[in-house]
Design a protein that fits this description.
By secondary structure, the chain is mostly beta strands. It has helices spanning 130-134, 356-368, 488-491; strands at 7-11, 25-29, 36-38, 41-45, 54-57, 69-72, 82-88, 94-101, 115-119, 122-127, 139-146, 151-157, 167-168, 170-175, 189-199, 218-220, 251-252, 259-262, 268-279, 288-294, 297-305, 310-321, 324-329, 338-339, 341-349, 391-393, 401-405, 412-414, 427-429, 434-437, 450-452, 457-461, 474-476, 481-484, 497-499, 505-506.
């Protein structure tokens, strides 16, 4: 199969790297009102990053600080609408985005809600903390994304299965080293963590300060089929820079025997995965050699593991259901196989991004409105089922805004001239609001067919350029406070449905039948 060619093996150096530096990034304590210092990191209140939702305190005793508050978002009337945090980032850097959820009965129901989480224009996946909460455990999700701009948005969205208010406990954007997971095409994909385990380890989760990026390495222990051997392997510069501590334990065979185990523990949906496995020999004088098989397919043949260590990874490997891993000694090997750690990520196809110029234009329109729709945050068009209220977008690789319908929304404020930068617009409906000020120049909208500004409070004269839009077929301006003359280019434009009365104070009177 073609994906077999995507396996790589890297010999590893023994350069010592300090793991004492605190992770760099942004750490948000959702629902908190004051900052707190935890493990040398400053956790910030979330009001700077989000403009919707409600801060709530959990009443359970003895919760760690970042679990004692949540931000809750209203479900009612908000199915398929998103609520977003917008976080400053450094463009082109790689970020581990981690979300943490602990329900704590905040909605007054026994079970937590199920909802979607989104990064920029990509639907990251479903948040379902039901099983964890039943065991009084915290749920977390990790994804690796490259920043495409100066900000990244993280959004929570109610779907059709959501039965109470969505919530979040904590949000982290941690900068990763350039070399980590760099065989992935982050222009096309993100990585969604499925499992990360330290094999043979039966203690607490390994994280910072052992892992300089504060990745979570969960314990994974088998029964009599493996041994756990504690030792200090002087290896720290592995591919993907795993923590040294994961090499203190291992799954190893008794004698020259195969090791076979199921990992990841859960059944996987049919998809493409990134798999990384980490090995370091605990015997300086001997080399272990063995074959790695996954679900009966050769993952690597004749892998030689020395005390310097090796990492083997596949960037695109197809998996479905339960995954069986077998390490089989090579014929010439005098000692059996071992394995120290592993990571599995689902390869997440990026959903794309709305054209930056259109995003900037809509942001200017939003600023000119005194009460814009609450969900006008994050990517305007994507994911498509969570596009902004009133915004319709094109499909294909170049995502553009093609229609704006905010009629009867009770909007006030003015209409930004930047609306003319939405050059793919074909229809604009802004009728029956309380918009005021002058009508901007729409002449750059060469595809504009319908422009509805009726029943507002616009004033001043009509832009002469309106009559020069060849595609314009419908222009409704009645019931405003417009003055001056109606350009002949409008009154005489063939095929144009023009409505300027009642209301307005045009002079001279428009032609009969206008």
């Amino acid at each position: 199969m073609s994906f077999l060619s995507l396996i790589f093996l890297f010999s590893l150096l023994t350069l010592v790297q300090s793991q004492s530096q605190s992770p760099r990034g942004t750490f948000i304590d959702c629902g908190a009102t004051v900052a707190s210092l935890i493990d040398g990191r400053q956790w910030l209140p979330d009001s700077t990053y989000v403009s919707s939702g409600t801060s709530k305190n959990l009443t359970e005793p003895n919760l760690v600080p970042i679990l004692s508050t949540v931000r809750s978002f209203p479900l009612r009337g908000n199915i398929n609408k998103k609520f977003c945090y917008v976080v400053p980032v450094i463009r082109t850097l790689k970020y581990m985005v981690r979300t943490t959820y602990y329900y704590g009965g905040v909605n007054g129901r026994n079970s937590p809600p199920v909802f979607d989480q989104i990064v920029d224009g990509t639907r990251w996946g479903i948040v379902n903390t039901t099983d964890d909460y039943a065991r009084r455990m915290v749920s977390y999700y990790e994804g690796i994304f490259v920043a495409a701009g100066k900000t990244m948005s993280f959004c929570i969205a109610a779907n059709t299965n959501t039965d109470s208010d969505p919530f979040i406990s904590a949000l982290e954007f941690i900068i990763l080293g350039d070399s980590l997971y760099n065989s992935t095409d982050f222009g096309q994909y993100a990585l969604n963590l499925v499992a990360r385990h330290s094999f043979g380890h039966n203690g607490s989760i390994i994280r910072y300060p052992d892992d300089q990026f504060d990745r979570f390495w969960e314990p994974f222990v088998l029964g009599n089929s493996a041994l756990s051997i504690f030792r200090n392997v002087p290896v720290s510069d592995f591919w993907n820079l795993p923590p040294v501590k994961i090499f203190e334990t291992e799954l190893a065979s008794r004698g020259v025997e195969p090791i076979e185990f199921q990992w990841p523990p859960a059944s996987l949906p049919n998809s493409t995965y990134y798999i990384a496995l980490y090995f370091a020999n605990d015997r300086d004088s001997s080399s272990r050699m063995f074959h790695i098989g996954i679900n009966g397919i050769t993952y690597y043949h004749n892998l030689s593991v020395t005390s310097d260590g090796v990492a083997v990874f596949a960037t695109k490997w197809l998996l479905v259901g339960l995954t069986n891993i077998i390490l089989t000694p090579a014929a010439e090997s005098e000692i059996g196989p071992l394995i120290n750690a592993g990571e599995v990520f689902n390869l997440l196809q990026l959903g794309g991004r709305t054209l930056t110029r259109d995003v900037t234009a809509l942001e200017s329109v939003k600023k000119s409105l005194e009460n814009p729709p609450q969900d006008w945050i994050g990517d305007p068009c994507l994911p498509s089922q969570y596009s902004w209220t009133g915004v319709t977008c094109s499909g294909g690789p170049r995502i553009r805004v093609i229609s704006l319908n905010l009629s009867n929304m009770g909007l006030s404020g003015s209409l930004s001239p930047s609306i003319a930068n939405l050059t793919a617009l074909a229809n604009v409906w802004l009728g029956n609001n309380s918009l005021s000020g002058s009508i901007p120049d729409f002449s750059r909208l060469k595809r504009l067919e319908k422009l509805h500004l009726e029943d507002n409070q616009f004033s001043g004269e009509l832009p002469l350029s309106l009559g020069n839009i060849d595609s314009l077929r419908e222009l409704f301006l009645q019931n405003n406070n417009l003055t001056g003359q109606v350009p002949n280019s409008l009154t005489r434009k063939p095929g144009l449905n023009l409505k300027i009365f009642p209301g307005n104070n045009f002079s001279p009177s428009p032609p009969s039948g206008a």
